[in-house]
Amino acid sequence: MSMRGILLLIVVLLPCLWLPVFSSAPGTSGSVTQLPINELKAVPFKTVDGKEGWQVNLPGNFQLATPCVVDGMVYIGGGFGSYEFYAFDAQTGRCIWRIRVNDDGPTAAVVEDGYCVFNTESCTLFVVDAKTGNMVWSKWLGDPLMSQPALAKGRIYMAYPGEGGHRLACFNVKDGHQYWNKKIAGDIISAPVVDREEDLVYLTTFDGMVYCYETGDGTLLWSEQYRATSAPSIVKGQVYVSQREGEERPQEGITSIDKKGNIVKGMLDKRAAPQIDRAVQARSLFEQKNQADSAGVGFASAPQTAKASEAAKNVGQASVSGLWGYQGSRPTVVGDYSFASRGDTLQMFDLANNKTIWEHKIQGDINKIGGHLASPPAVVNGKSVIGTVNGEIICFDNATGKQEWIYKIDHPIRFQPAVVDGRIYVGTTGGQLVCVDTGNKELTGWAMWGGDAAHNGPLAIGQEEVTPAPVKTPPPLQGVQASIPLKAVNIWIGAGICVPIMMVMAVYLLIRRKQN
Q1: Angle of helix 3-13 relative to helix 486-515, nearest 10 degrees?
Q2: pLDDT for residue 95 is more than 80
Q3: How confident is the model over 155-165, as pLDDT tens digits?
Q4: Which of 233, 359, 487, 514 has the maximal Cβ count within 10 Å?
Q5: How far apart are CA 169 and CA 155, in angstroms?
Q6: Alpha helices of 180-256 — where are they, by DSSP H?
Q7: CA nearest 139: which of 39, 247, 27, 34?
């Protein structure tokens, strides 16, 4: 072979070293980029009563959803309008990893078995490794996505606007394999809710429909139009939602539904509900902020796929931001008692005897401020913990209704707190992640929005407390970004293919030279 031939052969074989081997997981349509973490610093503080805490100001100052706290780490998206997602040390606030995704508006995350799952408002479902932030897989679903995923027994449940209307889909958390996909009326309030004991998944759409599916094959067991205004809570086969009645000056009550979709008790403790009255909400400060936030991501008016007009008639919100952050007067049910933030009131209600045990008014003009003045409560170990629009974290004793303590952090809070190992974690409307250590280790068990990854809460299965099982990090999957950089993997694989070929050619040329 001539020298020209040898040079030509080398030119042909060298690109093998950069072959895009395993460049992404099967079905991947999003991207994840690791970002520097040095600029994110947790600022320590002390409360008036000597409790310690820390605060991290996230870039952009966007509204933050509920933090997710699992296995000593805090997971949180950068908020509505952000492209970033973070993991922090739960005790110190030190940033562990920080990623940028290719779509904006990451929701609250769910974490289980080493997988961290979240979606963006526009428009992708992401699964990343909980320890590293490296992407396992992602899937573009539709625009906008105004709810968050649920995760239970290795399956993800997610709603999205698809071809011909909205869908509820079920995916394998490991590889994104789709088990089933069902048509629903529209986007859903907050998230799907999974009953782990009965292997059923429930949801409420923004127009008030309530659905029940089998988790295995997606068989629809029942669906009814109840004008429901919250995600369901499920306790021993009973389904509890907040429910609307009336058009102008609507009222809202607590309703229980049986396994077959029939109302058992309807509109308990019916009361005026300006928080879902569109006429009131349209004039509120909350509406102004939501409209501005929505315009900031290209939705000066909600797209047709959002079905905002139908949502406005039922829950009072009509913007993408308003629906993204809407949580409603969702009842958390423990035994015979419901705990819920109902507009401007935190309430403990006796469902068996139809009477209020105690309630606490939140300061503020609900008609002027808009939305709910307090987050849904995190209910743990006989206590209820809420965040308020006044920038307060408040703890109440469930037995007496008395306020046990209050911490003022001077930043409005609308999303539900997480409560783990005596620490309270909240995200604010201005982009602050705040942790307060109460020192009471028994105050624990509410690790993310809705309590756990199924969103049915450790308390929702009965009277007793249940602590989420520790997370186990799964081995890297084919297509997962592991600790070795992708380029290095490509070089080694390419070398494994090309070097032997080049060695054979070199031996062949030496033999030919000796023969000549």
Answers
A1: 160
A2: yes
A3: 999 999 998 89
A4: 233
A5: 10
A6: none
A7: 27
